[in-house]
Structures are given as C-alpha cells and as structure tokens.
Amino acid sequence: MTTRNSHHVSAHLRADGVSVSFGEHRVLTDVSFTVASGECAAIIGENGTGKSTLLRVLAGDLPPDAGFVRASIPAMGTPRLGLLHQEPPFSQQSTVAQALEEAVAPVRAAEREVQKAAEAVTDHPQGGQAQRRYSLALAAAERLGVWEIDARIEATLNGLGLSEVPRTRPTGAISGGQQARLSLAWVLLNSPDFLLLDEPTNHLDDDAVAYLLSVLNQWQGPVVFASHDRAFLDEAATTLLDLDPSPLPQSVAGPLVADGTGSGIGITRFTGAYTEYLHARMDAHQRWQKRYRDEQNELKRLRAAERNSHTVGHADWTPRTEARAAAKFYADRNAKVVSRRVNDARRRLEALEVEQIRKPPRPLSFGGLVTEDRSTSGLSTGPLVTVANAAVRGRLAETSLSVGAGEKWLITGPNGAGKSTLLSLLAGELQPTSGTASHYQSPCVSMLRQTHELPDSPGRGPGRTANQIYADAVGAQHAEVVPLGTYGLLPGRDENRPVADLSVGQQRRLSLAIVLADPPDLLLLDEPTNHFSVLLATQVEAAIPDYPGAVVVASHDRWLRRMWKWRHLELDTP
C-alpha cells in the first residue's frame, strides 16, 4: 500500500447514481462513490463490467444516462481532468516534440500569465486588482510546477523509457508500445487536477512502473485508475472499487438485470491491499451462496406452510355433542387459528420474497488452453524451432534459443529489448538480419498478439458478432464442432453482440479463443495478461504447464515472473 501526500485535502471527485447503457446492453447501474485527494482508487472487475466506460464518464467524455459526476476543488474554479485511455491524446502527424509541447500547453500558459500579471503590477504598483491577479497567477504557476517543467519533461521521458526516441520523429512512426508510453507521459505532463488512468502499466517495464509509482505517490489530486496488473494494484491502490456483482435484494436487482447476466449494480468499496481483498471477496461470495441457499429453502418451507395452514387438527373431526352451540364454538375457534396461521405465514413469505437476495451469478470459468473437446494427438515431438545468433537491426540483439516440443519458456527484458520481435522470429513471420531462425517438421504455430486484430469479413457488412467473427476465423464447420462457448471466455449474451461493442478485454478474449481453436505445436503468447481480468490472467497462467505443446510467453508482468518455474530467457536492449 502507498501513502500519498496532498496539499489539496478538500479536492474530491464524486459519482452519484451513474448508469450507462448502450442500446439494450446495460453497462453501469447506480454507481456511487467519492475519491478525495490522498486517495488512489483502483477500479476492478471482470472484462466488460464497464471500467473504461466509468473512466470516460468521470472524465466528462461520455454523459451518463442517469446520475451525475462532480469534480471540485474549492476556491480554484473549474478543475481539469486528465484521462489516459486507448486512443493517444496527440495527432499521429505530430512529432514527439510537438506532442510534448501540446501536453505542457497549460503550464506554458500559466508561465505567460505570471509574466503579464507581473507587468501589470509594474504599471500599476498601487492597484489592488493587479496585485490580486499576480497572486492568483503565481499560485497557479506554483501548483503546475512552471519553473520545473523542462526538468519534468526530461525526467518523465527518461522514467518511461522514451529518452532515446528522436523528438523529430512523427508519433505515428514510433512503435505501439512507445505510443502508449508517450500517451502516459502526455497525460502526466499535462498536470491535470484529477488523474484518470486506463491500464497505465501496459507496455511498462520494471523501471517505468517504479517511476509511475513515484509520480502517483506525490500526486496532489485524486487518482482513479483501472488495471489488471496484480502487483501494481497491491502497490498503488489505497482504495478498491469493485464493479462485479454484489448480493443485492432480488426486488432491486430483478428489474435491472432483465437479461439474467452477472452484471453488477452499484459498487463495492474496500480499503486495504488487493491481495487482502481477494480473500475477503472469496469469503463474501461463499456467504452469498450460503445465504441464497438458506433463503430459497425457507421460501419453500413458508409456501408449503401457507398451503397446509388452512386447517387445525383433523379436517373430518366433529365435536362429541351434536349441539349447535358446541359445533359453532369449535368452528369459530378453528377459523381463528387457521386465519392467524395463514396470515403469519403469508406475512413472513411476502417479507422474504421482497428481501431475498439475487442469485449469485456463475462466474466465467476458463476452459483451459486445450479443452476436452480438442484432440492433441497430432502435436509434434522433438525440436520445433532454433534461433542461432539471430539479430534484427535496431530491434533485437544477437540471441540464441532452441524450443523443443512441450517446453515452456518465459521471455523477459526491458522495453525495446525485442520480446515481440523474438516471437515474430519464432513464428516465422520475420527473418533475422544476421544469424538464423530454423523451423523443424513445419510445426503449427499460433500467436496471441498484444494488438487484438480480429479477422475482417469482406462483403459481409458491419456489425459482425463475436460468434460470427469466430466462425470466420476458424471455419464454420470447425466452429460447429468447437463453438466459442467451449472456452468459457465470453458470457453467452456477449457471444451474439457486435464485436465493436465489446470491451478491449473481451475482444482479446475472442482473439485467444481463435488462437486455441486448433491447438498449435508452438503457442506464442505476447503479453498474455494485458487487458485480461485478474481472474482470467491467473487461469491462463495456471493452464500453461498442462498444455501438451510448447509455450513461449513474452511478458513484463511481475506477478507472472514471480510464479514462473520453467525455462527463462532475459533479453538485453540492442
């Protein structure tokens, strides 16, 4: 856990009753929370629960269907919010230098205002208005760090591993990872009052993550971020905001969860370390399941009691005397007792039907890298590929590696060391500029890439669903034998939604299903934990040792590296 310092103790970001739907698909429902200065709040939840959507709502980029968001810093006017998301905040035609200057434009403007205000004081030394203007300008300049901005630019670029990127290069000509890090640098240098970050550690190596942690530790305003990086969650978050479902009463959840999914309502807040929360959440889910079972059993008992409480004693019993008065006495007494019992049972039944909690949704369960439906008898044996003294100019230093059937390899190294380039050599998609890359037996090779480029379907029109894209990629006949649902990667309702409407994490889940549809001899996974939920990332890691073919993983994920027990190759920067 991190202790953060702040001078703006009264600044806060508040969401109240926020709900968002896209068409008939409900994403967020009645989400309320407050994040103040001194807090670094992490939004967590399964892929598709609306983490990125919530960040966009907080930033003001997406108006909610209901509820509101309010960001305030008393006595400071309208606060500025900075959002890091999938799209870069700079033009692809801008050079790196131009993008950086766009980022620090508010700081440069504050510097110019100090100069103008100082000139006004010089011209009107006795003017109270000029003095007030100068005081306000000076305070704003100090808050934005005007006099340290050039040093901050250099420190940020160095900290995020961008110091060697030529400033004259167009941003569209740098790598995807460099663009992601430049986007993060842009947001940090823009000096917003409120910081909103979507997957900030994607494409960051250890040094860059350490630098980001140091920045967040000193950030003066509220910070909200969404991340699947388990180590980063433990180190950075002071508060967790969980969008996954919680045990609300069925009377509340029922009308809102008409599609029967496990979508969350509201938010669960937890103050503590992420690893502590995992245990607390597991215990809470078990209590939810037990309470639901107990309530359903009690409902059955009360319904039976209501049916059986219409008589007292034996229905055919009659008093010994046939006197009319005696018969009426016993009949009246029986009617009163029956009425009281029926009313009591009905009241308890009605109360429990209103108060009963919703059924716990069944979580997605990853079917594994190879499911029982797939045959692996055709996988190759023996050596598969050998890279001998291979190098790619400017991208990969001289490297040697031999991958045999069934072996498990982890490729690590700093940004720019060539992890993805090495995977491309192993896949046969790239040839080295020196050295050799030799493939034996023509092995079947499949790669899960960092970018989720799903296959196009020319002439089939837009709006293709996940099921349709899956069938396009693996073949209609194969998709019938091994349907998308085999892998437990997407809920059934999302399989028939347009791919464009799915979250980044859900699209990458679809890419993984396509890769696994025909188990390859050599499975290449490039940053497999990026954009995946914590649960899925853990399940994928756990499935690697049981995969019958060879697996090569390129990753910067510190959690994965700590748990890795097989072969390991560390790359150096070329």
Fold topology:
Layout: E1 12-22, E2 25-36, E3 40-44, H1 51-59, E4 66-72, E5 81-84, H2 96-103, H3 105-123, H4 128-144, H5 149-159, H6 176-189, E6 194-198, H7 206-218, E7 223-226, H8 230-236, E8 239-242, H9 250-256, E9 268-270, H10 274-308, H11 324-355, E10 383-392, E11 396-404, E12 408-412, H12 419-427, E13 434-439, E14 445-448, H13 466-474, H14 476-481, H15 492-495, H16 504-516, E15 522-526, H17 534-543, E16 550-554, H18 558-563, E17 567-570
Parallel strand pairs: 3-7, 3-8, 5-6, 6-7, 12-16, 12-17, 14-15, 15-16
Antiparallel strand pairs: 1-2, 1-4, 8-9, 10-11, 10-13
Helix pairs in contact: 2-6, 3-4, 5-6, 10-11, 13-16
Pfam family, one: ABC_tran
Domain ABC transporter: 13-270, 379-571
Protein name: ABC-F family ATP-binding cassette domain-containing protein
Give a short summary of the structure.
It contains 18 helices and 17 strands. With 574 residues, it is an alpha/beta fold.
Descriptive notes:
- This protein is α/β, with parallel strands linked by helices and 574 residues long.
- The chain has three domains: 12-111 and 148-279, Rossmann fold (3-Layer(aba) Sandwich), CATH 3.40.50.300; 287-355; 383-570, 3-Layer(aba) Sandwich (Rossmann fold), CATH 3.40.50.
- 40% of the residues lie in helices and 18% in strands.
- The protein contains 18 helices and 17 strands.
- The protein has helices spanning 51-59, 96-103, 105-123, 128-144, 149-159, 176-189, 206-218, 230-236, 250-256, 274-308, 324-355, 419-427, 466-474, 476-481, 492-495, 504-516, 534-543, 558-563; strands at 12-22, 25-36, 40-44, 66-72, 81-84, 194-198, 223-226, 239-242, 268-270, 383-392, 396-404, 408-412, 434-439, 445-448, 522-526, 550-554, 567-570.
- The strands form four sheets. The protein has a six-stranded mixed beta sheet, sandwiched between helices. Strands 14-15-16-12-17 form a five-stranded parallel beta sheet, with helices on both faces.
- β10 and β11 (396-404) form a beta hairpin.
- The radius of gyration is 31 Å and the shape is flat.
- The two termini are 35 Å apart.
